[in-house]
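Lab notebook page, bench 4
Experiment: in silico fold of construct C2
Operator: M.H.
Input chain length: 257 residues
Purpose: comparison with the prior construct
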Amino acid sequence: DHDGISVHIHKLTSQAWSFDSIQGEVAWGINQQVTHLFSSVVQLTQGDSLLNLFMDGDFPRKGVEGEPFMHLRLGLQNMDVASIPAMLPDVSMGTSLGDYLANAAKAGRIAQGGVTFNGMVGKQAKDLGPYSYSVAVWGQAQLPKVHYAAGWPEIYKADLDFSSNHQMVTVDLHDGQLLGNGKAGFDLVDWQVKVPMLSTQDKSKAMIEVSGDLQGDGTLYQRIAKQLPTSVVVPSWIMELNPTGQIKLQVNVAVPY
């Protein structure tokens, strides 16, 4: 189909996926015990984005004991980052991961990435919660701005890899800047950010782990101190140093969610 199509897998997503074109095969096989769903590698387009979808599943027929199970793999290239939350299987895993990704990055492109789902999709899945499935999300992205934690300075011109499941988002930053672009910001070197998903952790104990190196003009440290949350107290002796010139600082902090 090249005239536009919507794909809605009700047991996985609360809203349909919309595509400009789709090419591939989806089939069903039925026996006395189950209905089996399977597909070829289905090629899809969405604007300038290219996607490949593969899925299969077993669904017990009426009166047959057993739990529906589904496997889905979605690969993507050149995807608008704003489209990613709608691609996640929120019926099973909830909206915590999608909400975080939507707030963290408002613009930018996913050069390549993917979503993999394996799990139950029936009544028992609701009782077991996160123990009934696994969801892996990964990608390589170039983002103009990343807002990783409320009240903390944003990251600019981010070139990063990310991976996640229903418990944790991990971001490995290859290149980016803190406070601003060019000479106005600090260069970030080999940064890693780990963000727990609150659907599986106590919010009062959840911390965002941030580690990496800062490189730049020492006078920018005064600006960083002024932009930190009020709950963060920078020791006075550090402020009194008032460093100048090019410096490098190793950072390892835990940020309240």
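Observations: Helices lie at 84-87, 90-93, 96-104, 123-128, 220-227, 236-241. DSSP finds six helices and 15 strands in the chain.
Next step: discuss at group meeting.
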